[in-house]
Write a structure and sequence with these properties.
Elements: E1 3-6, E2 9-12, H1 13-20, H2 38-42, E3 48-50, H3 59-66, E4 71-74, H4 79-82, E5 89-92, H5 97-109, H6 111-128, H7 131-153
Helix pairs in contact: 3-6
């Protein structure tokens, strides 16, 4: 685990970052918690910001959407699939902190837009990522893949 020294303390690198950036008054790392408590935390947010440089899927965006929280995210990887730009949130160019800041300001100033995007996010998650539908799709995919493999192997 990477560490950094801040004054008298040696902390894990991720915990030292707020000290290094001098943002300790507005930033707090949460201790690990049970997954079931996450909706209660996300539900208190006004906006979810996901400034990824790379992202494989974008589960955090779906979790936020499920809680009716609009998402501001980098337009990378799976976030382009899990955030509908202008509908469930705002996609910004990766690494563009000015665009992120402007998107945050715009949503904080427009509560109607925040509510509309949050509601749209909830509907999007319900429509496209229902747990039972996902399981059925996964089973179908793996059954099809298994059948293909058997045919290819000559079984």
């Amino acid at each position: 685990t990477a560490t950094a020294t801040t004054g008298l303390y040696t902390l894990p690198l991720h915990a030292a970052l707020p000290f290094y950036l001098a943002i300790t008054v507005c930033f707090r790392w949460r201790d690990p918690m049970p997954h079931g408590s996450i909706p209660g935390i996300i539900g208190r947010w006004s906006i979810s910001v996901i400034p990824s440089i790379r992202e494989s899927f974008g589960v955090a965006a779906l979790e936020s959407g499920a809680m009716r929280i609009p998402v501001i995210a980098s337009a990378v990887g799976g976030l382009c699939e899990t955030v509908r730009d202008g509908q469930t949130g705002t996609l910004v160019p990766p690494g563009d902190s000015d665009a992120i800041a402007q998107a945050v300001i715009d949503l904080l100033r427009d509560s109607d837009k925040r509510i509309h995007m949050g509601t749209a996010g909830r509907h999007f998650v319900q429509e496209h990522y229902d747990w039972n539908d996902c399981i059925s799709k996964w089973l179908h995919f793996f059954e099809k893949a298994a059948a293909s493999t058997c045919l290819m192997a000559g079984v």
